[in-house]
Amino acid sequence: MTSKRRRRRDPLWARLLLIFGAVLAVSSGGTLVAARTLVDKATDSITQTELIGGGTGAAAAPEGNNIDGAVNMLLVGIDARENDTDYRADTIIILHIPETHDQAYLISIPRDWMVDIPPHDELGFPGTTAKINSAFFEGSKFPGSPLEKRGRGTEVLAATLTRNTGIEFNGAAVIDFGGFHSIVHALGGVDLCITERAESVHIGVDPDGKLVKGWYNDQVYPPRMEGLPPGSKPLVHEPGCRAMDATRALDYARIRKDLDNGDYGRQQHQQQLIKAIVKKATSSGVLTDLGKLNELVKAAGEAFILDTRGTPVADFFFTLKGVAANDLTLIKTNAGAFNSAQTASGEAYEALDALSLEMLKAADEGTLSTFLIENPQFIANSR
To answer: Which residues form the Cell envelope-related transcriptional attenuator domain (predicted)?
Structure first.
């Protein structure tokens, strides 16, 4: 990665939070000066770098970063452990905002979708065909700092989505689960509605009722959680709406084992968590509490990597201020049903059906709102 690619500091989930927070400050009667002060403070604390464009070029929206029309942002979640250099995109979401700038859609991309990963001339990567969560790994496997690896991974992933959907991106953001935990903790937790019973594979409860960490061993059959103290049991999330702390909320959003819809269930839970974070971050209890707001900004600054492709965050804020007036709409591919397929060698993967590809084309062409009116089965339960 060349030096010109390191512009500022970190990611997109943070921007999603902080922009929406600042937007609500204005819509709730805050002054324009106060809103700009909040945005500037948030921007200073967030790591920003070039995540798309560069060597592949295909992923970046043409003619600079024109956000006057429809806007597409790439949100990438990675599960990066300490001293881990093998990065894969655990969560891939497209944030789509139509030309009217009055609505926001979250489109989750299945991690097992088989795609063409394009070559990257600068890295000497020849391209391949693989599951889409491998695209981030293919870019990040080359030598470099953690920031450079995340940048290359996002760049190859964005180019892969452009190759397979036509969607070009106005920006991108990366966050790992540790960073997400910091954000939710700074908010004092979030309110979530559990839609189905889910048993953790990462967190247990000891005999005294305290949460303890375990680890998921998928090298044995059947796979199981290990490393819990004697007498501990896996944490179980029972159906119902409740306030959840950061550990429980993040754990619930990561579970896919034994869910009725497998990874689609997890995608929906992740979308619900993002929505809950935005709702909590834009609540008056956060915006009017200077201490909590400062803690949130600090947590965001340490958690995210962001690329707005040179457009000041404040410009995004003022251009997209109408989004805050409406709800986030959660979108699922294949209408939430796993579409299993196999390669010639017998490798299982997920294929997107023709209507899902049409939905992504509608996002590319700025007609997603019309598509969803005609195909409401693609809208996920937003509770």
So the answer is: 88-282
Amino acid symbol at 143: P
Contact between 157 and 51 (Cβ < 8 Å)? no
Per residue in 6-36, pLDDT tens? 333 333 344 444 444 443 333 333 444 555 5
CA–CA dist 133, 112 (Å, integer): 7
**DSSP code per residue over 3-32:** GGG--S--BHHHHHHHHHHHHHHHHTT--H
d(CA 90, CA 78): 5
Whole-model pTM?
Answer: 0.76
Q: Which CATH class is domain 3-188+277-378?
A: alpha beta
Question: How far is the CA of 286 from the CAs of 13, 21, 152, 188, in angstroms?
Answer: 17, 9, 35, 10
What are the boundaries of each domain within the chain? 3-188+277-378
Per-residue tokens: 278: 């935005």
Across residues 297-313, what is the average pLDDT?
A: 74
Radius of gyration of the chain (CA): 20
Identity of residue 68: D
* Residue 290 Rama label (left phi>0; alpha psi -120 to 50; beta): alpha
pLDDT, tens digit, for every residue of 62-89?
444 678 888 898 988 887 655 555 677 7
